[in-house]
Design goal:
The chain contains 16 helices and 16 strands. Strands 3-4-2-1-5-6-7 form a 7-stranded parallel beta sheet, sandwiched between helices. The longest helix is centred in the middle third of the chain and has 18 residues. It is globular, with a radius of gyration of 22 Å.
Length: about 450
């Protein structure tokens, strides 16, 4: 197991990385997955000082080589390796070790922190547990895994004395910045969320998005995960489980609320808004909010309202705080650096989940079918409070891929434990069972 040594000299991440650069001891990243997001990380880290991607695992190693070509001279020269010893030798030579084996990267002595950029829930479970067991920090870009087993993984990381963190730059962690800022000032959060980037088409399937995905250098399945709303549901449930905010209704409201109406839309119904309660996660489909994130704070003290009005920020008592951008994978290296340098997590789940991403059928599903992946043809993600998920016996979204349909499911109906059987061979199914038992015992 690696020994975790923190930089006690303080300062910002930028200052810490500059110290590492001067010392010739960069923060060493092991990257799992070199698709769109992984490629971004390789390019971005190549522009930074005091940090380096030293090993990459991908089921198709040529993807990593392509990423290195895109990065140009910024990163390390790639070297294909076949085993753990070859990986170690390549890193010692100052090369970027490229392998098919995620386990070899997660357990390598020359790696300080691992970034999971796969987006596959089961792979995320295996990568996170292997990394934590090896005594290394884990940055989860795999939000699909986090909303399924994040509480368990965060607890395991804490027990091992390492950091579990979602990556900076994604909408959940960008919104978390606003939530932490407002809570630090003592302002209650009425709602927090994001603008949805893509058109909201719940019946979207990959065959209709091949050309657009090609133009945007995306996998069609991943593009559809955004379009059909699954990604929005995943991101907002990740935010819920890290903050204690909850979906107000199943699926959230998702109005077409422009930026200047957010505070009057995401407020209680008795005051003209949509909400049945305060303290929720939600999203808007209106243009002009995405790619930004927001939080609505309640500020009733007359002096605060006077100051906010003086600053041309509204009349109150509800005020919108807005970050107009998120840089997705480009900010993620900052989470890797913060974890290694200062033992900091930019975002992690609370011990007790408050929300769940369930799933609803995109088409009629018949007994005997094996369910496909998120963003494909069978189902879409759907955000629920934990209470609503338990009432529906909802199958967690992260357990759907590979599950067998055991009873007829009509289009629009929930996938449940009564009509689907998860693949018990998958690690994430085993871990989710352990998390459910642990959460139930803690609540008893």
């Amino acid at each position: 197991m690696s020994v975790i040594t923190l930089d006690r000299s303080g300062g910002s991440v930028a200052e810490g990385l500059e110290r590492r650069h001067r010392q010739g001891k960069p923060v060493r990243i092991g990257l799992i997955g070199s698709g769109q997001m992984g490629t971004d990380i390789i390019v971005q880290v190549g522009l930074m000082r005091g940090i380096a991607v030293v090993a990459v695992a991908d089921a198709v190693p040529e993807n990593a080589l392509a990423a290195c070509r895109i990065a140009g001279d910024g990163g390390r020269a790639p070297e294909m390796v076949d085993d753990a010893s070859g990986l170690a030798r390549a890193m010692q030579r100052g090369h970027l070790a490229v392998t098919k084996s995620a386990r070899d990267v997660c357990t390598a002595d020359g790696v300080d922190v691992v970034i999971d950029a796969t987006g596959n829930p089961n792979v995320g479970a295996e990568v996170a547990l292997t990394t934590i067991a090896a005594g290394k920090h884990i940055v989860m870009m795999n939000v699909e895994a986090d909303v399924t087993i994040g509480a368990y993984l965060a607890a395991k990381a804490a027990q091992a004395g390492v950091v579990y963190t979602l990556g900076a730059g994604d909408e959940p962690s960008s919104t978390m910045e606003l939530v932490n800022f407002l809570r630090g000032l003592g302002y209650p959060i009425v709602a927090a969320g994001k603008g949805k980037n893509n058109p909201f088409r719940i019946d979207a399937t990959p065959d209709a998005y091949v050309d657009e995905a090609k133009r945007r250098n995306m996998n069609p399945r991943m593009l559809v995960e955004f379009v059909d709303g699954s990604k929005t549901m995943v991101e907002m449930v990740a935010l819920a489980n890290a903050t204690g905010l909850v979906p107000d209704i199943p699926g959230m409201h998702g109005p077409a609320a422009p930026l200047d109406t957010l505070a009057t839309t995401f407020c209680p119904r008795e005051e003209g808004g949509l909400l049945h309660r305060k303290g929720v996660v939600d999203f808007t489909t209106a243009r002009g909010v995405a790619p930004g994130v927001f939080a609505i704070a309640e500020m009733r003290h007359p002096r605060l309202r006077e100051r906010m009005n003086d600053l041309a920020l509204g009349e109150g008592p509800y005020f919108t705080f807005y970050r107009p951008y998120h840089l997705t994978s480009l900010e993620v290296p900052l989470s890797a650096a913060a974890a290694v340098l200062y033992g900091q997590s930019h975002m992690r789940p609370l011990p007790q989940p408050v929300a769940e991403v369930g799933a609803r059928a995109k088409r009629d599903l018949a007994p005997g079918e094996t369910l496909d992946a998120i963003g494909e043809y069978g189902y879409r993600g759907f955000a629920l409070s934990r209470a609503d998920a338990l009432a529906q016996h909802a199958l967690p979204l992260g357990l759907a891929q590979g599950a067998k349909v055991t009873a007829p499911i009509a289009r629009g109906e929930y996938l449940t434990y009564a009509n689907c059987a998860p693949d018990a061979r998958q690690k994430i199914v085993e871990v989710r069972r352990a998390q459910d038992n642990w959460v139930s015992e803690a609540a008893a």
